[in-house]
Design a protein that fits this description.
237 residues
């Protein structure tokens, strides 16, 4: 079992943890600040330092074979620490922070476009969401202006938990049709952005929308009769 520290401490960039297993898959630790790939957000990368001073790169982070297990993937042939040893994780913080900014921007995009989300992915400097929406709603300039207005509004971003029963009674909290929210613990994590958005989400986010910076809508593509792909990116180079 791995304690998922990234949910409550998304700004923590380093952490010491104990080695539970070390095998060909990678390292499983008793706690981690590394986010595992899922929900459209990439797995974190960074480094892990061993007790003897060896430092090796973590090239990806994935969910393991059990619901709570997280695997830190090492490069092929990299040294491994022994079970029970203490290691120190260090995030590629610039990459993670970019994912946090972009993931939060996606929440604002889905608030501006209140249609079912049929797919999506997040990258370091851009993201896309696919919406089941009519062509009339695909006004690139209007969408860009509305998202940037919410960014400029400096809305606080927070997380909270709902019981399975309370969550099931509010189907509007599920925006993504292709990805089900994490279940199995008796409660579901919700992310709230000011008073404009509340939805189930397991990802990492910034604390305030001003931290995102301005975005641009790069393009809107027709992906079906009512499926529109909206791609956003940071305005800065």
């Amino acid at each position: 079992m791995t304690v998922w520290l990234f949910r409550d401490f998304p700004y923590q960039a380093e952490h010491e943890a104990g080695v539970v297993t070390a095998d060909d898959r990678g390292l499983v630790l008793d706690a981690t600040i590394f986010y595992p790939h899922g929900g459209g957000q990439p797995g974190d990368t960074g480094t892990v330092a061993f007790e003897d001073g060896t430092v090796v790169p973590v090239i990806d982070t994935l969910k393991g074979e059990t619901r709570t297990e997280i695997v830190h993937v090492l490069a092929a042939g990299a040294a491994r620490p022994a079970k029970g040893n203490c290691v120190r994780l260090a995030l590629d913080w610039e990459r993670r922070h970019a994912h946090m900014r972009m993931h939060t921007a996606c929440h604002l995009l889905s608030a501006v476009l209140p249609y079912p989300v049929t797919g999506g992915s997040i990258r370091r400097d851009s993201a896309r969401l696919d919406f089941d929406m009519p062509a009339a709603a695909a006004d690139r300039a209007a969408i860009e202006a509305a998202v940037n207005a919410l960014i400029d509004a400096a809305l606080d971003v927070s997380s909270e938990w709902a019981t399975d029963e309370a969550f099931d009674a509010r189907p509007e909290l599920v925006r993504t049709l292709a990805v089900a929210p994490p279940r199995g613990s008796g409660r579901v994590r919700l992310v709230r952005v000011g008073n404009v958005d509340l939805q189930a989400c397991g990802g990492t986010h910034v604390a305030n929308t001003r931290e995102i910076g301005r975005i641009v809508v790069r393009r809107i593509e027709n992906k079906g009769r009512q499926n529109r792909r909206v791609e956003i990116a940071f305005a800065e180079k």
